[in-house]
Prior knowledge:
CATH class: Mainly Alpha
CATH topology: Ferritin
Radius of gyration: 19 Å
Distance between the termini: 40 Å
Bound molecules: fe (ii) ion
Amino acid sequence: MSQTILDEPEVRFPLRLGVENRRIRSLFHTATRQQWDPATDIDWDQLHPEQYDERHLQAARMYWSRRAWGEYGAISESPALQIRFCREHCVPDMALFFSIRSQEEARHAEVCYRMAEALGGYYEEPEVTAYQGSVATHGIRKMALDPDISLEGTIAALVCAAEEIAFDVFRHLIEITPNPVARQVAKMVLRDEVRHCAFGWAFLEQRMPQLSDAERARVRDAVITMIERVELNGYHSAWLAPDSPASRIEVEVDRLTWEAGLGATTEELEKPIFLESIRTMRQRMKDAWGLDIPLFTHPKFASPF
Ligand SMILES: [Fe+2]
Ligand SMILES: [Fe+2]
């Protein structure tokens, strides 16, 4: 049977609580000041669902439900990482920050759920169960508890790659979404996500200089795996998922939601955002950590990117 970090005896003391990563500690303090309430901080009466026909409403309900499922994934991964931070005696600032990060992901799930409800009703599962492979998990929860997988690699992949891509797409949604409520939801989520991303870079800035070449290579591998197996498999963007009846339904859901102006984007609009996101990430990993992230390929792109 495979071992997890929970099988190891817990050694809590000495318990350090002083500031050991100033940047992460300040993200924690900012987060505590920036709390918001999905019930009262969104102008729900500006949504006007009566302006939309049934077809578009149904698509938007599915779209926002899917967003809620994605955020729900973070609700389970976040505490798993929290346990890992405590077990590995990471700098205490990380555990403090992540307690708020879990709350923020819960808030994101709630706001997306409320959005789906306001549009006519939340869906509890994908229309075609086959699509769960792409949307349901990126495997972080399991990785977080696996002592053989490095924490640095996990954070680099989850935060500095995946969350950064999600951040760029959210910023793009704010620019293109006409419905004021859909835009406001995206804005509020983005306000939290900026800190989630900053956390990853702040952690690795401190850790990378302490790693051996072999450990650094594992960080690089983790990032590549996240891009190739998760992002390019359609985790955030349905049009990147392997072509199947299930993924075609999701792409159509996105298209209709975008057409209604209720959130979502299309392959055509998102492609340049995605490419830029990968380029920026590669450059930053090179500049900050000295890692060379290779070019990627995908049937939707004519050349390696
Ligand atoms: Fe989130
Ligand atoms: Fe996040």
